Amino acid sequence: MKNGLALFLGAFVILALSWAGLLLTAHQQLGSLSQYKDPTDDVLYPQPLSGVADQGRLVYQDLGCVSCHTQQVRHEGFGSDIERKWGLRGSYARDYIRDNTVFIGQSRLGPDLRNTGSLELHPYADAEYFYKLLYAPHSVAPGTNMPAYTFLFDVHPLAGRQPSDKAISLPGKYAPGAGYEVVPTLRARALVAYLMSLKDPFDYPTERNLNAAAAPAKEGAH
Question: Where are the domains of the chain?
Fold first, then answer.
């Protein structure tokens, strides 16, 4: 029994030290990261989220968007993310320091969203596009398996009221019908602000060498 107890305690101590070492190493590597100041224009990157976008981050979390979407662009040579226009470069750890919760995810039932707000990659993706995508996904992305989030919108009758300047324009069969308008709620507007904030346009000189393509496998290697 004494040997068994000593063996158990020894294994426990080894596992505890290994776990603590893993956490401390990660904290040392990532916890000290800060914003990078671009010397050409004195702008700090990554830029902080606006208040509305930060509220949208909570809506994103509440809706479980991370179940179907990742937010991590694989570096060249490790996948086709850049070819798919999911990013201009691979993601760095520094990209995530502004995020209170990091939604890296692990399932790609839908596209990666790390740069979904980049107009350079997606010039069509304005706020109206995202509202349509949330209310009637097939109206802008035919064949998508994304569900409709109609509960994020109000359908108002136009009779006896001033039309809303926030109403979205839906084509054909997706329109609400004559005499009605579809207006995004505050949650929808916050979520769209968050989606449009997702972009990593700056390539940090301190991390650029980490984006080198993976070396090709040697012939005959196992």
Answer: 36-209
Q: What is the pLDDT at residue 12?
A: 74
- The two tokens of residue 202 are 């700056």
| Number of CB atoms found within 10 A of residue 203's CB | 13
Quickly count: other Cβ atoms within 10 Å of residue 101's Cβ: 10
Give the other-Cβ count within 10 Å of 83's Cβ.
8
Structure confidence at residue 190 (pLDDT): 98
Rounded to whole angstroms, the Cα distance separating 30 from 64 reads 26
| Residue of 84, 148, 67, 90 lying closest to 122 (CA atoms) | 84
Amino acid 164: pLDDT:
92
Mean pLDDT of 118-125: 94
Task: List Cβ neighbours of 192 (8 Å cut-off, separation of 6 or more).
Answer: 56, 127, 130, 131, 134, 184
User: Which of 56, 146, 63 is CA-nearest to residue 110?
Assistant: 146
Annotation: CATH topology of 36-209: Cytochrome Bc1 Complex; Chain D, domain 2 (1.10.760)
d(CA 161, CA 179): 11
- According to the 3-state scheme, what is the secondary structure of 28-95? HHHCCCCCEEECCCCEEECCCCCHHHHHHHHHHHHCCHHHCCCCCCCCCCCCCCCCCCCCCCCCCHHH
So what's the pLDDT on residue 25?
A: 53
Nearest to 72 by CA among 44, 106, 98: 106
Overall pTM > 0.90: no
Give yes or no for a contact between 106 and 100, defined as CB atoms under 8 angstroms apart.
Answer: no
